[in-house]
Amino acid sequence: VVPALSELLARFRAVRARTTALAAPLSAEDQVVQPMADASPIKWHLAHTTWFFEAIVLGRDGAAAFDAAFGFLFNSYYEAIGSRVARPDRGRLTRPSLEIVHRYREAIDRQIERALVEGALDAPALSRLELGLHHEQQHQELILTDAKVTLGMQPLRPAYRDDLAAASAPAAAPPAPGWCAYPGGLVEIGAIAKGFAFDNERPRHRVYVAPYQLAVLPIRNSDVLAFVADGGYGEPRLWLADGWAAAREHGWELPMYWARQDGGFVQYGLGGVRPVVADEPACHLSYYEVDAIARWLGARLPTEAEWELAAAVTGGADLGHFADTDRLHPAAAPAGGEGPVQLFGDVWEWTASSYGPYPGFRPLSGALAEYNGKFMSGQQVLRGGSCLTPRDHIRATYRNFFPPPARWQMTGARIARDA
Ligand SMILES: [Fe+2]
C-alpha cells in the first residue's frame, strides 16, 4: 500500500530539505574529508542519496543521467547497476564540487516532483520512492555520525553546532535501575505484510522465547566508569576472543570519543567536548565492549526477539530522545514509566543475535535485492534507533546491523538475564 501522492510529495520535500539542513553547519572542506574507511564524506552522502532517486527510482542513467559519470562516483554497493569508486576512496573526490552536488540534488528533486505531479510513476516506482525516503533518513543519521568522526578526530575537536543543549535536564523522578520480567513463550516477531518495512524485517514468524528479564535502563556511563575503574578493559576473562584481540589491536581503554582529563573523563559530542555524565546512556561502544560489560555486570545481552517482545509490550510508550529533540546526544532517562525506558531513541542497542535472514526471507527484486540481504554474515543486530534517528524512521521490528568492532555509530546496549 503506497501513501497518497500529495502526502508522498510533502514527505519527499521534507526529507530532502532536512538532509541539506544537516549539512549546512559544515564548511565545504568539512564535507570532503573521509576520516576513516567506514565513514563517508558528507558531500558523498548528499550525492549518493540523490543518485538513489535518479538511478533506482527513476531508472535514469547513462545518456539520460544528470551526469553520466555520477553513477560510477555515487553508486554505493549495487553490483547489478555497475562498477563504482572503492569505498575507502570516496574522500578523494574533490570533484564534482559541493556546488555541483547541490545542483545535482536540485535537478533530481525537480525530476522526481514533476514525475509525481504528472502521475508518471507506477506503483512499483512509488514503492521505490518510499524506500528512497527511508534510505535518505538512514543517510541522515550517517551524515551526523560521519561528521562527528570528521570533527571529533581533529586536534581541536570543534563542535558541529555550538547551540546544542549542554546537558540533559535531570529527570524529576529518574527511574531506578532494575528488571522487567517477561514470560516469553511461542511468540511472533517481525513486520506484518502491510505498511512500510525493510525486507529484512519480514516475514513475521514464530519463535520460542524462554522466560527472561530485561533491564529497565540501558547501560549508562556510570556502568562504564565502574567497569573502567575495575580494570574491565584489561581483564581477558570478560572478553570474547575476537573482542580481546580487537581491543589490543586498537588500544581500546575507553569508549570512542572519551578521554581522561583533570582526573575525570570527558567525551566529545556534536556540541563539543564535555564531561562524561554518569546517568546518560553509554554510547560509541562496540559489540565486544558491551558484551564484556554485560558479563562484568553478571548478565548478558538480549536476543533481538527478547528486545522486540519488550518493545511490542510497551507499545512505544517509553520513548527516549530522537534527532527531533535536536540535542544530538544521548540523554538521561525521562521520569517514571512502567517497564523498560528508552528502548527507542538515545542509543542503538546491540543484541546477542547475529544478523541473518528470518525464515522465509525474500529480498526485494532487481538491484534492490542488494539493499539488505547480501550483508547477512558477520554482523550483529541492533535495535531501537538513537538520538540521531528521526522519530518517524524507527519501529519495533526495525533491524539495524553493524560488524562487532564498529564504534562510530551511536551504539550502546541493555542487559538481560534468564528468569
Ligand atoms: Fe545508501
Structure commentary:
Helix 1 packs parallel to helix 5, helix 2 runs parallel beside helix 4 and helix 2 packs antiparallel against helix 5. The chain is built from nine helices and twelve strands. It is α+β, with helices and mostly antiparallel strands. The protein is globular and about 60 Å long. Bound molecules: fe (ii) ion (FE2). Fe (ii) ion binds next to helix 5.
Q: Assembly state here?
A: single chain
Biggest beta-sheet profile: 4 strands, mixed
Helical fraction: 25-40%
Helix-strand pattern = HHHHHEEEEHHEEEHHEEEEE
What is the number of strand segments? 12
Structural class: alpha+beta
Rg result = 21 Å
Q: Strand order across the biggest sheet?
A: 10-9-8-11
Name the bound molecules: fe (ii) ion
User: How many DSSP helices?
Assistant: 9
What does the average pLDDT come to? 95
- Which ranges are low-confidence, i.e. pLDDT below 50, for 5 or more consecutive residues? none
> First CA to last CA: what distance?
41 Å
Strand content: 5-15%
Q: What sort of overall outline do the alpha carbons produce when their principal axes are compared? A: globular
